[in-house]
Fold each of these.
Amino acid sequence: MNTIIIILFNFTAGVICLICGVNMMSDGLEKSSLKLLKKLLSLFTGNVFSAFLTGALVTAIVQSSTAVTVITVGFVNSGLIKLSQAVGIIYGANLGTTITAQLMSFNMMHIAIPVLAAGILVRLVSKKHAFINISHILMGFGLMFSGIGILNLGVPYIRESKHIYQLFIQFGNNPYMALVIGAIATMLVHSSSATVGLTIVLFNSGLISFEAAVGLTLGDNIGTCVTAQLASLKTNINARRTAWAHTLYNTIGVFSVLIFFSPFTALVIHLTHLIGQDSSRLIANVHTIFNMLSAAVFIPVSKHYISFIEWIIPERK
C-alpha cells in the first residue's frame, strides 16, 4: 500500500510540474514575442510554403502550436489571412512544436533546480514585464525538467509494485490503446508537449514498448486539435474550416502511419541511429519525423486539400 501511495504521489507531482513547466515556459516565450509573432504571421505567409516556414519559425520561438493555431484561427476570422495561408501555418506549427520534445529527450535534470532558482530570483528582483517573461521562461524550463526528474524517481517503485508493473506489462505493448490514451490525455491537459514528455519517460525507463510509445505520440497529435476546435466556435466559416483543416491534417497523418506502422517505426529507428543518436532520442524523433512527413505529403497537394475542406464544410445558405 505504501508503494502505491508513493507511486501516485510521485506521478501526480511529476505530471503537475511537467505540465506547469511546459505551460509557463510557453507563456513566457509567447508574451515576450507576441508582437513579433503576430507580425510574422500576418506578413510572411504569401503562399503555402512561406506560410509553412513562418508557422514553423514562430512556433519554434514560442513553443506552443496551440497558441499559434488559435491565433491563426483568429486571423482567419478577422480576414487578416486566407484559409490557404492558414493551412500552411498549421503545417509549420506542428513541426515547430517538436523542438520541445527534442529538448526533453536530453538529460538536463542536473540544471533544472539552478535554472528554476534563477527564474524565481529574476521574478523577485524585477517587476518589468520583459523580466517577468524571462523569469517565466526560466521557471518553466526548470519545472519541466524537475517534473521529468520526479517521474524518473518513481520508476523503481513501479517495478517494485507487482500489480502496477503487471498493468504496464499487460497494456504497455498495445499501440492502438496507447493512441486512444494519448489523445484523451492531451485533450485533458491541452499540451501535446507535456504528454510527449511523459511518453519519453515511460519509454526510456522500459515501462512501455517502442510501439506503444509511438501510439501515445500519435494520439497526442490528435488530442492537441481540441483547443483549435473550441477557439473556432462562433466564428465565421473560414475560421471553422481552419480548425477542421488542423484536425483532419493530424488525423489523416496518424491513420496513414497506422497503415504503414512497421515501415514508419523502422524508418525512425534507422534515421536515429544513422545520425549517431541513441534510443533515448527515439520518441522525440517519432514526433519530429511524423510531422516532417505529414508536411512533405500535404504541401504539394494543399490546393486539393483546401478544396476538400471547403467541400466537407460548405457555406450555409
Amino acid sequence: MIAEIVSVGTELLMGQIVDTNAATISAALPSIGYRVLYRQTVGDNLERLTQSLKLALSRSDVVITIGGLGPTMDDLTREGIAAALDEPLILDHDLQQELQQKFQQRRYPMVSSIIRQAYRPACARPLPNPNGTAPGLIAEKGDKVIIALPGPPAELIPMFNDYVMPYLRERAGGEPGVILSRILRVCGMGESLVEDRIKDLMQGSNPTVAPYAKTGEVHLRITASAPSSEQAQAMIAEVEAQIRERLGSAVYGVDEQTLEQAVMELLWAKGATVAVAESCTGGLIGHRLTEVPGSSKALIGGVVAYSNELKIRLLGVPEETLRQHGAVSEPTARAMAEGIRALTGAHYGIGTTGIAGPTGGTPEKPVGLVYVAVASEKGTRVAEHRFIGRRSEVKWRASQAALVMLREELL
C-alpha cells in the first residue's frame, strides 16, 4: 500500500520548526507493509491544504496529516479534510463533553475556541488524545483513508503507536508483507570509492542499496520487501555480507551506532585507555567520546591546548618545534599526542592541530589544514588533512578523522 504524509503549518515552511514527526512516521510504516512514496508540507491556508489533500488522495491509499488540529483560527486540518472528502463538518457532542471534562479536571478555564476541536468530518471517527486536547481523526471514504494527528510529538507519537499502527496493520491484512531497512555506516572511505565497489549491488531492485554521504562518513541503506520479517531480514543479511566483504573494516557500525560508540567498544574489548590533546577541535573529540555511556572506563581525560604556552607547559611540546614548524604542523601534532599519552599514562594519545577558519590561513597553511596524530606503544602516526567548509564543519571533520585513525590503530 502507498502512504503519503502531509505536514501542515506555515512555521514548517518558514524553517522555524524541523519536521521530525514525518521522519518518525516514515521510518515506522514500512515495517507493516506501507511504502511512503510522497511527503508534502503545506502552510495554514485552507485552499492550498484542500488541494494538497486531494492530490494525495489521487495517488495514495493512506494519507496521514500532521498538525493543524488546535483551537485557533489557523488550525484548518479538520476543514481541509472535510472539503477534500466532500463531507460536512459536524459537531461531535461526545467530544465536546470530553473536552469540557478535561478542562474541569485540570481546573483550566475553557475558552470558546476550544470547541473547534470537537468538530469532525461526518465520515470520521475520533482518536483519543490523553496527552493533549486535540483528538486525532480517522476519516474513511470508499477505499481511501485520511488519518489526522496532532503536531506536538508528545501527543503524536503515543497516538500513532497506540491507535494508528494497529489500525493500519489490520487494514493491510489483505496485502501481507513488510519492508525492512538496515543502515551500514562506513568511515575512512569516500562516497565515490564506496559506490565503485558496490555499484552492481546498487542496481538491484529487491533488496535495494542506496548510499548517503554524511559529514565524514557514508551510510548505505539496504531495503528489502518480503512476505515476512524473517525473509526480509535474510535478504538484507545476504547483501550486507557482500558489502562487508568488499568494503572490509571500513564498515564500522549498523543503524544508529555512532563512530564514537564503535571506538569505545574496541577500547573496552582491549582493556585500553585513551587521552586527547586538542587544539583546533576545541574539546570536540572528548565531547563525542563522553557521549557514550560508560566512556569513563576507557577515556582518561583531555587537554584543550590552544596556546603555545599550554602546549609547552602541559604537553611537553618542545619550544624549538613550535618555533621551527609552527603550532599547525606535523611535528606539533606528533608531540601533542605523545605528550598527552605521557602525561596521563593512557595506552593511546590523540593530538589535533589546525586552522578551522574562517580567518588565519596563509598560502602555505590554508584554512582547513589539520594535522591529526595518534600515539601508542607501537609508535606515532600522523596524517595531514585539507578540509573544506565552515568552521564547525572543519572541526567536526577533524574530530571524525581522529576517531577513524584511532579505530584503525585498534583493529
